[in-house]
């Protein structure tokens, strides 16, 4: 039977136990966030591909279906950002996600108004949104690098910025269409899929 530990020995072990507890809590928080993001990214992949396929069928004109889809996409982004922000509270500041929510809400309203003016106006609003949302996605991805699976999000954010600029420029074309806007969703969806797959390791702790 071992001798009782002295007060000094117990005191020296306390910081180690405390650090271990903090590390465990942090790891569990990251795993929980990664698990939520993984599921969310799979949903975003499916939505983006389905949205793009339907949008391609009506990209040549601003009919009721096209208008509905154009307003729906940023609203879906709002819902996704809300889920993301709630899941991220324990692992970092969700301020940028709140910015994204506000911008996407404004975009939905802006697109609805722009639809009355024609495709060029829609492309300008859509392009501005792609630039801002892309920057947010890129910065958030950089801050989450330690979680893993974020390089696809960083790359996707950068591509979104470039695509947004091309939409704004394309709005001045002689006969602009929404085809590029529809196609914009596909690579974004693929990057969500890749990120979801790469988040599997980080999410294992929460899925056990």
Automatic annotation (TrEMBL):
Keyword terms: Membrane, Transmembrane, Transmembrane helix
Q: Which organism is it from?
A: Actinoallomurus iriomotensis
Q: What is the lineage of its organism?
A: Bacteria, Bacillati, Actinomycetota, Actinomycetes, Streptosporangiales
For this entry, the protein name equals Membrane protein
Leader peptide range in chain numbering: none
Q: List the transmembrane segments.
A: 41-59, 65-83, 95-119, 125-143, 150-169, 181-199
Q: Does the keyword Flavoprotein apply?
A: no
